[in-house]
Design brief:
CATH class of the largest domain: Alpha Beta
Number of domains: 2
Strand content: 15-25%
Number of helices: 23
Largest sheet: 5 strands, mixed
Helix content: 25-40%
Number of strands: 21
CATH architecture of the largest domain: 3-Layer(aba) Sandwich
CATH topology of the largest domain: Beta-lactamase
Length: 575
């Protein structure tokens, strides 16, 4: 028994070993505790840096793009905050997340989305879908997919849709101007984005702001000269005429004679800038500014103005237009019928090609050419609108008789509807040419006297005969107002000559003729339903738009029954 006890005692480990083991564990615990105190109290910057690297991010704060309004402050373009869905492909793939539910929710092709994510596996940012509605964004984040986050952006909205699209233009998905005034004043409207440091959770969601690094600077508001009421009126009437006449294209320009401001400008075909699927090159361009055409007979008022300024002709000067045709060089000039001997005023009323050609041939070669140049033909209007055309003018006065005659009745040059409207506004303003503006002006510009006031008033009186009985455009009349205008019908130029079956129909004019306030040009490209004459298809559009515009602007009538005798009696009393 004693021997067994001795053997059992001898098999136990020495006491010092237990003490050493306990001492070792104690030392390890002290070392770990010391290290923890060192990392979390004395030298915590390392862990803080590592944590920040995983959760602190610098994000951009988008700047609010400035609004575009009409002259009365009515909105034409505005921006609203939206969310865009993006994914970190590295994190998404590392977690083995399934993209099918995300694709289904965002109405995307699952296989296509998965392929996009895998192709960009080495990146940390990939847009999944831009500008999603708020409720959809919430449903996306409710999926709690790793690496999927939202980014706040702004989306541009256009309250008037197609009505003002060609003037206002549109932005791309990154809110940068692409057409129209959005492009012309992109820097003014855009502003500068800000930046801030934030804390994000494992799903990429912002859970706290740390500090602001740079405040965003919002874009500035842009106030256009457009009047939304007149714009809608012009749009409605031009679109109706375009559908009725089955035209290839159409344009309308309405200017304020006293300031040169564009009050309305519309084109057909149109487009809705809120629907990006419609933004193709053919429909988005502003034809009234970018497309130039031979103006036909609308140019004759300026040829007559040049002739009157030369001193060789007066409104009552008689011109023999003969049997209705005239040979000039190798070309034959025709009138619609034989007018015989007519004065210059009747020349405008009947739109005689022969009459204006004979006038041109009696003048010096540079007389008419110089008048056209002073009116701005052949030069860009200088509005700053993207893509504005300068039209086409002979670089020097034509010398050949046929070219001089053709230039006088609207061939051999091309002008844009905007240029033509500006020239008519010059006649309406007693010969003062004012720069055209798409921006609302605080006060009327001074302008430049390019035609004598007396000649401008003489031409205005002749133009009133165009809308009277016996003129080429009685359908342009406006009840209660005196109207002055001119029709135009020109064949379209093609390779090697002119197309006898393709025409441009014009009406240009202003009202009230006694004290003009509004000037307008209507152009219908290839009307094919009933007629192609400007007096029949373009003049009625002018009448309807001008009638509504004068009333909306509260312009006093100057052609009411009995108005002349009333004014005379008032004048007599004052005397």
């Amino acid at each position: 028994m004693l021997r067994d006890a001795q053997q059992e005692k001898s098999s136990l480990p020495p006491a010092w070993r237990s003490a050493a083991l306990l001492l070792g564990f104690g030392l390890c615990a002290c070392i770990l505790l010391g290290r923890a105190v060192d990392l979390q109290v004395l030298d915590k910057q390392f862990l803080q840096t590592q944590g920040d690297a995983r959760h602190l991010r610098v994000v951009e704060i988008p700047a609010h793009r400035g609004a575009i309004t009409d002259r009365n402050g009515e909105p034409l373009a505005s921006s609203s905050p939206v969310d865009s869905v993006w994914v970190n492909p590295k994190e998404f793939l590392a977690a083995g997340a399934d993209s099918h539910e995300l694709a289904r929710l965002l109405d995307l092709e699952p296989r296509l989305l998965e392929r996009r994510i895998r192709e960009r596996a080495d990146r940390e940012f990939l847009y999944v879908k831009r500008h999603v509605p708020p409720d959809l964004a919430e449903r996306v984040m409710a999926l709690k997919l790793p690496g999927v986050s939202l980014e706040r952006e702004y989306r541009r909205f256009y309250p008037t849709g197609e009505v003002a699209a060609h003037v206002v233009g549109f932005t791309d998905i990154d809110d940068r101007g692409q057409e129209g005034m959005e492009l012309a004043y992109d820097q003014w409207l855009r502003g500068e984005p800000g930046a801030k440091r934030v804390v994000k959770d494992r799903y990429g969601r912002i859970i706290g702001d740390v500090e602001s690094l740079r405040e965003p600077r919002p874009g500035k508001e842009l106030r256009l000269s457009i009047d939304r009421r007149l714009q809608y009126l012009a749009y409605r009437e031009l679109k109706a005429a375009a559908l009725e006449q089955q035209v290839r294209a159409a344009s309308l320009v309405l200017l304020d004679v006293t300031t040169g401001e564009v009050l309305a400008m519309v084109n057909q075909p149109g487009y809705n800038p809120n629907n990006r699927a419609e933004l193709s090159g053919q429909v988005v361009r502003n034809r009234a500014v970018t497309d130039a055409y031979e103006p036909g007979s609308t140019i004759k008022v300026f040829s007559v103005a040049a002739a009157l300024e030369s001193g060789r002709f007066r409104p009552d000067t008689i011109i023999d237009t003969g049997p209705g045709y005239m040979r000039v060089g190798n070309y034959t000039i025709h009138d619609t019928r034989a007018f015989g001997k007519i004065d210059v005023s009747t020349l405008i009323q009947k739109s005689s090609n022969i009459g204006v050609a004979k006038m041109a041939l009696e003048l010096e070669p540079e007389t008419i050419w110089d008048t056209y140049v002073r009116l701005g033909f052949g030069s860009p209007p200088g509005t700053g609108f993207p893509g504005e055309a300068s039209g086409l003018m002979p670089p020097r006065p034509p010398q050949r008789p046929a070219e001089r005659a053709a230039l006088a009745y609207g061939y051999g040059l091309s002008v844009t509807p905007l240029q033509l409207a500006s020239a008519y506004a010059t006649i309406a303003a007693d010969g003062v040419r004012r720069p055209v503006s798409f921006l609302a002006l605080p006060e009327p510009p001074t302008g430049e006297q390019v035609i004598s006031p007396e000649v401008a008033r003489q031409v205005r009186a002749m133009m009133e005969m165009v809308v009277a009985e016996g003129g080429t455009a009685p359908q342009a009349r406006v009840a209660g107002y005196r109207v002055a205008g001119k029709t135009g019908t020109s064949r379209k130029a093609i390779a090697g000559g002119y197309d006898d079956k393709a025409h441009l129909a014009y009406f240009a004019g202003f009202a009230p003729a006694s004290k003009p306030r509004l000037a307008m040009v209507v152009v219908l490209d290839e009307p094919s339903a009933h007629s192609y004459y400007g007096g029949r298809v373009a003049a009625p559009v002018f009448s309807r738009v001008m009638s509504g515009a004068l009333r909306l602007l509260n312009v006093p009538p100057d052609d009411l029954p009995g108005l002349g005798s009333y004014v005379a009696s008032i004048g007599g009393v004052r005397q």
